[in-house]
Amino acid sequence: MIDLYTWGTPNGRKISILLEELGLEYTVKPVDITSGDQKSDAFTAISPNGRIPAIFDQDTGIRMMESGAIMLYLSKKAGGKLVPTDETAYWQMMEWLMWQMGGLGPMCGQVHHFVRFNPGKAPYAEERFLNEAKRLYAVLNDWLGERDYIAGEYSLADIAIWPWISRFEWQTIDLNSYPRIKSWYERIAARPTVQKGYHIPKFIQDIPRAD
Hints:
This protein has 211 residues and is of the alpha+beta class. Helices cover 52% and strands 9% of the residues. It is built from eight helices and four strands; from the N terminus they run βαβαββαααααα. A four-stranded mixed beta sheet has the order 2-1-3-4, with helices on one face. Helix 1 crosses helix 8 and helix 4 runs parallel beside helix 6.
């Protein structure tokens, strides 16, 4: 049994969606980051960095923070599901998983902070981070090409990236400008496991439509 410490953010949704995809049993432990729950001693004992998501595996006694590491751990626990066995596809999955953690997530997070929540306070920062987010969208759009999924088959990379793209409205991004991403986004949004995992730990809003 996995204890999942999470909230309704892109990083949190990576793990709840993955748990649904893997079919692993888990218990949800909401961490209300709007109330500062992530700073409590009880939570930092699980996640020393004081950020969601985090997990505690009751079967092994292992606790983990950092969403990318958690994803790899859970896949291994489930017998390597959602990790390609083909060597080329495996490393494509891995490089795009790292791309999300090192690029798309941090840059879009800054867009959320400056463009959505603090507009007009730092025009240079707004322009810088929004332009970088658009560049990353273009990189992903080009990569998808004729691919249905990032590594050719549905994998951890798709699950890591999709929740960040699901906040395209927060990023003032028009998905019609990125038609390959739009098709990929809609394909993944239609999965029942994604629809269920998106609403963990609670319903906040419907999955944004890419109209």
